[in-house]
Amino acid sequence: MTSGAATTEFVLSLDDLSDRMLRTRIAGIALGKGDLSDSEEANLPLIQIDGARGQAHALMAIRSRVRLHVTGPLGDYSLSFGSRCEVRVDGDCGHGIAECLEGGVIRIRGNVGHGVGVGMRGGTLAVYGHAGDRAGAAMLAGELFVRGDVGSDAGVGMRGGTMVVGGDSGPRLGEHRGTGMIFLRGRAHSLAAGMVEVPLRKRDELRVGVLLINAAIRGTPKEFRRVIPETIYLQEQSKVTGEVRPNWR
């Protein structure tokens, strides 16, 4: 988010407005600016959200084309079911953050609890601290970045999308059920059954590089490895060598 250099146009407070009133005000501000195209994203109205003190269920289902700058921590299940907007949170967040995110960009400059990005359907979610257990569980699409460590069962039930972990992982990383991709820079305590840790391909290096830029996270793609199902890795190797390598185990 470019809010650091931009000028705040509106200030709203969680102390003064109920959640419904806050959503209504945000939608009204977005409508006042008209329907901006993607090329005009830098001109989206910038709204500062004050009064954040760990309230649960805050700023859910925000689907307006705006930029939000939240100054303070948010509680459980905040920012869930959102799309289209760009959000920066300066503070820690609770459990279930950005659950079922449909689109837009969320950047959290702090730590988050368990279940961040569960059921994501699109968009970009970047955490600049550490995350608890089950990060990215049941992801369908989108991009989840955690610059620090993640807890146990990260990516469990993941069917699609991409998860990038800049730190270490707890037990049972992975457990894919689809085409999702996990990239890990640190060490995994253990992998889920049937998962393997393999080097990046050239195409993956380019992909990770672009993803890191999108999340404004510093790093070199070559520092990462892929965590994928062993069956997929064997298929890749078969295509390279032209040799069928069945997994008899």
Task: Give an account of the 3D structure.
The protein has helices spanning 19-33, 202-214, 230-241; strands at 10-13, 46-50, 67-71, 86-90, 105-108, 121-127, 141-146, 162-165, 181-184, 195-199, 225-229. It is of the alpha/beta class. The chain has an 11-stranded mixed β-sheet with strand order 1-2-3-4-5-6-7-8-9-11-10. Strand 1 (10-13), helix 1 (19-33) and strand 2 (46-50) form a beta-alpha-beta unit. The relative contact order is 0.08. The mean pLDDT is 90.
Q: In what range is the share of β-strand residues?
A: 15-25%
Helix content: 10-25%
Order of helices and strands: EHEEEEEEEEEHEH
Tally of individual helices = 3
Low-pLDDT runs: none
Shape: elongated
Q: In total, how many beta strands?
A: 11
Look at the structure and give the mean pLDDT.
90
Rg over CA atoms, rounded to whole Å, is: 19 Å
Q: Biggest β-sheet: count, sense, barrel?
A: 11 strands, mixed
N-C termini distance? 48 Å
Which class do the helix and strand fractions yield? alpha/beta
Major sheet strand order? 1-2-3-4-5-6-7-8-9-11-10
What is the element layout, followed by pairings?
Elements: E1 10-13, H1 19-33, E2 46-50, E3 67-71, E4 86-90, E5 105-108, E6 121-127, E7 141-146, E8 162-165, E9 181-184, E10 195-199, H2 202-214, E11 225-229, H3 230-241
Parallel strand pairs: 1-2, 2-3, 3-4, 4-5, 5-6, 6-7, 7-8, 8-9
Antiparallel strand pairs: 9-11, 10-11
